[in-house]
């Protein structure tokens, strides 16, 4: 790059400068092209030629000088070169001779070499033929092995062999015919293998559908055994808890076999093989779709309800088939290496679950027997327990059972109503006589009517009739059936629900039947007493029912006893008990009325005071004696008090009503003295029975005698020497506080202190009677003024 401007400066400096520059370029061995081109372009070639000639002359001078200086060396060198030429001629002649000799010797060897090359070619051809034959033999042997594998149903090595042929030998087969045949038969063999494994798989589909019911039955049976073990364990824990002291802590260690639960064994080898073969064939998706659709079709067929037999008989095979189906599907999901996805299994289960719930809802709505519904429910819960163990959700099953609980309990209540109707209708309402210890245990101890450690002498007369233990057995069975229905899944907090249904049984069924018996008026007095006594015992049995509920629901006894929420039925039965007592009182009063009719035969204007009670009182006392003795054996003290008090009050009211009625126009003091005798006899009876029956120990403010206070005060007033004292507030409050002004006015208006017999007004009157008569007249006037 720096030489270019230098050249230009030389060329531009005239002829002398050109010569120097040209010499420098030649000396440096540089390219003379630019200088020559410039000379011609500037039209000065002569100068360039002149300079070149000048340079040549200078170089010739230099050469001559150089030759002159090295002349001797050149001469020596030429001599040596000539000597070398001589040696070269000798060597050439020698080589020529050797070549001729070699040509003569190698002719025979070349012939042999040609033969050797020909042998080498034959050898190569033979080697290639052997290689070709080996490949063909190998391919043929592989095909034979593949056929053998297929004949032995060893499809996996058969496919591996075909893959080996296809990938390792097919492109290397030298024979086009054999290669074409191999290319044609490999797809045919794969198709044949596919058909074979599909045939095996189809046989498996038929077999597993038959096996599914057995698989489900075995698995559900194991769930049932597990449930029984749990119930037995809870029962033992409850017994242990019941027998333990409050400050005693009991620990139990249950050692059981923890081996994995075994179900009926079933073979999935055809599935695994078919899936693997299809994957090797590159059509795994096709087989997965084929499996899913066929299994779904089987499930739809399995869930068809049989029309030839009732659902009660067909539900177990149906549900067992479903359980077995999904147990198999879960195994396939876990072990078949992607044949099924979790989404597919869940979708299939949801479809089946929707169908099952629809079937159950329809069948539950058709059922008319509680035991049938309970049987189906139990098997459904076992199905839920079984499939839930394999990861399937059972919320919809639980919801169906929950929705049907009211229907079940309605059926159960209807059955209990019929049973209780029959029991109460067929009861004789006589005290139950127990002659054997096992009868006592079955009818008394079983329901804790008496302490468990007390064994009475036999025959034992129970305070209840035969209907009481029968009803208790029905109630106990109702509680057990209710708990059995409500104990499903993880639902363990159902004590309040059971208690609610128990209330309905005791109120809507038992109490209504008892009230019907009370108001039917078909029972005699003793039977009504026994019915009232039965109600009292049934009311007390409510605590036993609650404890049984708590026990079956898994609630400790001490917690149930501390609970403030009892049965509403207890108060209702208490009210029915009072209704029975009122019915008893009405019956007693009705019977007493039959005797009180004899009051009409009393001579109310008798001339002489009687020495003996009236006839009606004798009949009344006989009846009261029977009434008290019977009631004392059957009724509790409180009921006995109510019945006898009611009878006494009714007698008092009946005598008062008789005196007030228009049937008695007037009566004399002698008649009043007769009533006084009757009252004294009745009061003595009342006092004696009040103390002998132990009612005096109850602390009652009103005794039997107090129930007669109104008629007693009236008789005392009529026999008083100064009846006018009734108007004295102090005396009236002290002696006549139970008397009503109007009643006293009516009775006093009828009162005559002696009979109007012949000469009666002169012969029977004395000073005392005159004074009492005057006092009575004063009372009458003052009562009239008061009114």
UniProtKB/TrEMBL annotation:
Give residue ranges for domain Exocyst complex subunit EXOC6/Sec15 C-terminal: 396-750
Stretches assigned to the Exocyst complex component EXOC6/Sec15 N-terminal domain: 51-219
Chief location: cytoplasm
- Give a yes or no for keyword Transport in this entry: yes
- Extent of Basic and acidic residues compositional bias: 227-246
Region span, Disordered: 226-246
Indicate where this protein resides in the cell.
Cytoplasm, Cytosol
GO BP terms in the entry: acceptance of pollen; Golgi to plasma membrane transport; intracellular protein transport; pollen germination; pollen tube growth; vesicle tethering involved in exocytosis
Please provide, in alphabetical order, the Gene Ontology terms of the cellular component aspect for this entry.
cytosol; exocyst; membrane
Record keywords: Cytoplasm, Exocytosis, Transport
What's a Pfam family in this record? Sec15_C
The answer, when asked if NAD is one of the entry's keywords, is: no
Similarity comment text for this entry: Belongs to the SEC15 family.
Q: What does this protein do?
A: Component of the exocyst complex involved in the docking of exocytic vesicles with fusion sites on the plasma membrane during regulated or polarized secretion. Involved in polarized cell growth and organ morphogenesis. During cytokinesis, involved in cell plate initiation, cell plate maturation and formation of new primary cell wall.
- By what name is this protein known? Exocyst complex component
| Highest classification ranks of the organism | Eukaryota, Viridiplantae, Streptophyta, Embryophyta, Tracheophyta
